[in-house]
């Protein structure tokens, strides 16, 4: 399940400066154990996703 997707984040800043493709949505159900995996890919030059 995709909870959040941000692309084109400048290397000298953070996620708020990227393009938010999918707004954050909290896990459902709200009880129980959840696993979050954050995946970062480095973009070379000024490529956009």
UniProtKB/TrEMBL annotation:
Highest taxon in the source lineage: Eukaryota
Coiled-coil segments: none
InterPro entries (alphabetical):
PEBP-like_sf, PEBP_euk
Q: Which residues cross the membrane?
A: none
Q: What is this protein called?
A: Flowering locus T
Lineage start:
Eukaryota, Viridiplantae, Streptophyta, Embryophyta, Tracheophyta
